[in-house]
Write a structure and sequence with these properties.
Length: 185
């Protein structure tokens, strides 16, 4: 019986011991590495989700910046550095053709400091007075040229009265033109 017990223990004990050794040497470390891999996968998934969210936010901000740049390009006006950067006088001057424009006079005022300049900024202004005698279309062309000018300006006043000649319209347009002081070389 002793032999039977010993054989039973051997038959049951050896595989159990081998199983315990295999469990201890291979299975438990594998489960441990699998748990670490799951944690790493969770961290990577979280980082990927954050990256995707940040990328979406970056794309949204990029579209917004492009939209703002387009708005600035079409809506906002620049401030030239010095009077040399001004093209307003050239753009409002029209050829006198004796038909739609009978006479045009431009008077450019003195340059003076702008009282409405933001604090810490020196902004200069000058007044340009445009007087013309001609058709309404010629006066409108001048207003349109002022509007199309990409530099900062402000129409101060517009006055239109019927001229003494037939088909004549006396138009007086006063524009304030703004610019930064030119830097001395």
């Amino acid at each position: 019986m002793n032999r039977f017990l010993r054989d039973s223990l051997t038959i049951a004990g050896v595989p159990t011991a081998v199983g315990a050794v295999v469990l201890g040497l291979y299975v438990l470390p594998t489960y441990s590495r699998a748990a670490e891999a799951r944690q790493e996968a969770a961290r990577l998934t979280k980082a990927t989700d954050e990256y995707i969210q940040q990328r979406a936010e970056l794309d949204r901000l990029s579209r917004e910046v492009n939209s703002m740049r387009a708005c600035v390009h079409t809506e906002c006006r620049g401030v030239p550095s010095g009077q040399d950067g001004s093209r307003l006088v050239d753009s409002v001057t029209r050829p006198i053709n004796g038909h739609t424009l009978l006479d045009q006079t431009l008077r450019v005022g003195n340059t003076e400091s702008c009282p409405a300049a933001p604090e810490g900024t020196t902004l200069l202004q000058r007044e340009i007075k445009i007087e013309s005698l001609g058709s309404f279309e010629s006066a409108f062309e001048v207003l349109h040229a002022i509007d199309l000018d990409r530099n900062l300006n402000r129409i101060k006043s517009v006055s239109m009265t019927r001229g003494t000649q037939s088909n004549g319209l006396n138009a007086t347009i006063v524009v304030n033109e703004y610019f930064m002081p030119s830097e001395a070389p």
